[in-house]
């Protein structure tokens, strides 16, 4: 179950044009990367609740190779919050447990498979198993008992032991839908409210600790940090792309894919990914930590680092671009960077 309906106010004005699930990062959209990670972890079917620019998200999901595994559910009243989106999308889920996460989520397959294993084989009765990061201070705090049970989520539970912050992924039994519907009828808008309601009723909510890096991409700085992380751990490019690993450099004289044109004097420093059908004009410097999307054009004597160019974007000559995302011809700059712990 993937929640992909929100407008993404913290990503504005970029999200006014591109819904967050379609944000480009290290060669893939966020939602396509998420789906691939979940498939690698053993997930075989997906329900995606869409709202803001839902037609664009639906079109994209239909076009990707994994599209046959995905059912898209329109949520007309998505502005009521993620709880409304979840309840609407759950109407299409059968009588089985399900994973729940947002579309703007970068997670390792090992993290997902570990949560599934803990929920299935872990000790103690449970309705939900949620992922918690004990090393992260930002985000929604999670409090618990010493026996692996969650005592509460959010500041209202501070009298209990602080475990860490929610890592944005949970696995729930099908009965969770009824609790979400009840919380929605009471006026709640957030999934956290439904879980806290269950805790007060004595229903067992357990937690598992995350061991691998993950990203909640709810801001431009988080998008750039996810791009940084993914480029650094990448080992190769896909057909038609140019991937330069960390610590290496290629130039216009190197053997590169035929659809990528590097003019004289161009240097690409890794880790950097240049996608197909791009042209980079003379004496430009690309990287490190740059993703250049398909069909992009970079002018001469331009420097690009720690940045993302979306598909069909253009950067003029004699420009220095750092800590930015470019959509079309417009750069969106990040003044602050979030460094994951």
Notes on the structure:
- The protein contains 7 helices and 28 strands.
- It has 341 residues and is of the alpha/beta class.
- A hairpin with a 2-residue loop joins strand 27 (324-327) and strand 28 (330-333).
- 45% of the residues are buried.
- The model is unreliable at 336-341 (pLDDT under 50).
Query: Spans with pLDDT under 50 lasting ≥5 residues?
Result: 336-341
CATH-wise, what's the superfamily of the largest domain? Spore Coat Polysaccharide Biosynthesis Protein SpsA, Chain A
Give me the Rg, rounded: 21 Å
| Cα separation of the termini | 27 Å
- Percent helix, as a range, is 10-25%
Number of domains: 2
Just name the CATH architecture of the largest domain.
Alpha-Beta Complex
The name CATH uses for the topology of the largest domain is Spore Coat Polysaccharide Biosynthesis Protein SpsA, Chain A
Shape: elongated
Number of helices: 7
The CATH class of the largest domain:
Alpha Beta
Biggest beta sheet summary = 9 strands, mixed
Tell me what portion of residues adopts beta-strand conformation. 25-35%
**SS-derived structural category:** alpha/beta
The average pLDDT is: 92
The tally of strands reads 28
List its traits.
single chain, 341 residues, alpha/beta, Spore Coat Polysaccharide Biosynthesis Protein SpsA, Chain A, UDP N-Acetylglucosamine Acyltransferase, domain 1, nine-stranded mixed sheet, six-stranded mixed sheet, 28 strands, 23% helix, 30% strand, elongated, disordered C terminus
Outline the fold blueprint.
Layout: E1 2-4, E2 24-25, E3 28-29, H1 30-40, E4 46-50, H2 54-63, E5 70-74, H3 82-90, E6 98-102, E7 105-107, H4 109-121, E8 128-133, E9 141-144, E10 150-153, E11 161-172, H5 176-185, H6 191-200, E12 205-209, E13 214-216, H7 220-233, E14 242-244, E15 249-251, E16 261-262, E17 267-269, E18 272-274, E19 279-280, E20 285-286, E21 290-292, E22 297-298, E23 303-305, E24 307-309, E25 314-315, E26 320-322, E27 324-327, E28 330-333
Parallel strand pairs: 1-4, 1-6, 4-5, 8-12, 16-19, 17-20, 18-21, 19-22, 20-23, 21-24, 22-25, 23-26, 24-27
Antiparallel strand pairs: 2-3, 6-11, 7-13, 8-11, 9-10, 9-11, 14-18, 15-17, 27-28
Helix pairs in contact: 3-5, 5-6
